[in-house]
Structure to design on (94 residues):
């Protein structure tokens, strides 16, 4: 997906690297859809879906990148999206 298509519809952006499109709470879980820029192709973004258990450090994530599909573990895009979500949560708490 192109980042310029995502940018106008986001609720929070961390620099020009991470865009948070939506955050919703379902019971004890927080679901977030984020877009993180590619490292090599600056106009493209990976979609990252996070599922965090509120009040804990437990989370599940899914990314569209090749690294996540190959290894299956949290990639750097998931980590960046989680950091952006933490910053967004701090702003909402104020």
């Amino acid at each position: 997906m192109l980042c310029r298509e995502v940018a106008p519809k986001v609720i929070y952006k961390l620099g020009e690297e991470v865009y948070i499109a939506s955050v919703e709470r379902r019971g004890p879980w927080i679901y977030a859809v984020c877009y993180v820029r590619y490292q090599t192709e600056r106009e493209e973004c990976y979609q990252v879906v996070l599922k965090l258990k509120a009040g804990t450090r437990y989370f599940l994530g899914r990314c569209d990148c090749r690294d996540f599909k190959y290894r299956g573990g949290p990639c750097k895009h998931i980590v960046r999206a989680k950091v952006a979500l933490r910053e967004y949560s701090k702003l909402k708490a104020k």
Remarks:
- The radius of gyration is 13 Å.
